[in-house]
User: Fold these one by one.
Assistant:
Number 1:
Amino acid sequence: MVSSDSSISTYSWQQEANQSLRNGNYAKAASLYEQAITSEPGKRHYYWQLGLILLLQGQEAEAQTTWLLAIADGEPEEVDIWTQELIEVLATEANRQTSLEEYKVAWVIRQHIREINPTEINNLLCLIDLYFILETYTGEELIEFGIVDQLKADPLIELDLDLLLHIFKKY
């Protein structure tokens, strides 16, 4: 049971939810986050996690609705912060899925990051890598994603150089 009265019980249910997520018991993890949202509707992180779980269950529209619901009432500066938090949650899970060799799932998550922030260059590079792994790379992705244009336009862009070199070795 989710309770906002005690940090111990909060920690306990979050541990259980995270373990359920790692074990693929998405229904249980979703239920725990739904209870948490009911108890503490102002905690945006709960919405990020619930949306992620819905996405992992193949419920993409519901995931997006969950995320948008959490962002809808924010001021522009809050929305920017919350959006970055959501992207971090999704990127962490995409990395986890990649490490599990669940490349199609990682690709889907990264596509959602791309929808949220189409110019997040490191995400775009990860997508290119996944295209290679999934053997669906056509060569058009670099142009479609505008990666070269971004690099030309902003030489100080925060770029994972190791990832870029990894991609160029494949290209």
Number 2:
Amino acid sequence: MIPVRFEIITIFPEYFIQFKSIGTIGRAIENGLIQINTHNPRDYSKDKHRSVDDYPYGGGPGMVMKPEPVLECLDSLGEPAPFRILLSPQGELWNQNLALHLSQKTERFALICGRYEGFDERIRIAGADLDISIGDYVLSGGEAAACVVIETMSRHISGVVGDSESVTSDSLGGNLLKHPQYTRPPEYRGLRVPEILLSGDHRKIQKWREEMSIENTKRKRPDLFTCKDDLKGDKKSVCRGSEDPDEF
């Protein structure tokens, strides 16, 4: 099996040392299912200070990442050309459907991590196939976002998660939140596990879980529904995002 490769463009490659060594991601790398490589655009800077940023034309606060080091770093990745993702608060909002779609698109991705006040627009125009934002907030750089994108995509790669059913039943699978879950003891601090889960009747348990999943979503994330009618109907017909994302 050819591993899925993630090429990270970052001025802080050390950020990913621990990320690559622990948990699901660490095991996936060890088992040859994915590869994560870091590339520092400073290595492609032309001045003695290895600068990757400069003052913005027209004035304004902060510094902007220069196009030459980033684009030349991308050029160095060779063939097959990766699908290039720019991590930016201006990008398309990251979600489970998009993670699944991209995980099936190709076997090589480049993730471009910004710093400072943002990117020279020519990086976006000439160097990115897609802009991604992991949320409506601002980080100091794209490294944390890169970790989020890699982990969510990797879960959809065959063999990365030992039990494939746990992926399909995750929260946001089918645009529904997960049902409440319980383990031992059956009672703790006056709070009891619902009797249905102790009944041994798997058909009734499954029905309860489906109902609780819909109720959880209705209460906590009503935005995931395109309508609020017939919430006990076919979840694919009432939940936003059941269709495939646009092609890129």
